[in-house]
Amino acid sequence: MEIFLSICLGLGLSASSGFRVFLPMLVANIAAMSGWVTPGESFAWLSTWPAFFLLLTASLAEIGGYYIPFIDNLLDTIATPAAVIAGTLLSTSFIQIDNPVLHWGLGLIVGGGTAGLVQVGTGLLRLLSSKTTAGLGNPVVSTAENIASFSFSGLAIFLPLIAMALVVLLILWLFKRIASLRKSK
């Protein structure tokens, strides 16, 4: 059961990385420093003060950048590979498996894949918002993404099973939304 909960935690934090790259890492850092979660031995850096200040600064810069029109679209280009890396790191830091190949493979496939999928979905949503509102609707999208990232991160830490169910529903919704966008072209 412990491995299942650690996978749920990693998956929830990874999905949150698809909305914002650094905010879920900051939430995980605070949770680790508070003793709510315990990262793997090789990820002890996640529960340090230097990591806190670095992640806080990066989170504030990222959140602020998404409120600047057209910079937000540039950030989406950068955030896509960064989200995959962050999702992989977050998943791998909490999944408790002794086999390194399986550990990192699962982290990359589950964590990186989930973060990448969510990031691509939000990037398409922002692109649609930019096309239909000339960028004026993007701050609304950014606010929703900030709330989703923070909420999913908190749920992943405190209620990992619910977070996993919501991630599955989110992925299904994204697939449906992408399919409907393709049909409308």
Automatic annotation (TrEMBL):
Domain of life: Bacteria
Keyword terms: Membrane, Transmembrane, Transmembrane helix
Key word Lipoprotein present: no
Pfam family name, one: DUF4126
Coiled-coil region(s): none
UniProt keyword annotation of DNA repair present: no
Identification of the protein by name: DUF4126 domain-containing protein
Provenance organism: Dyadobacter koreensis
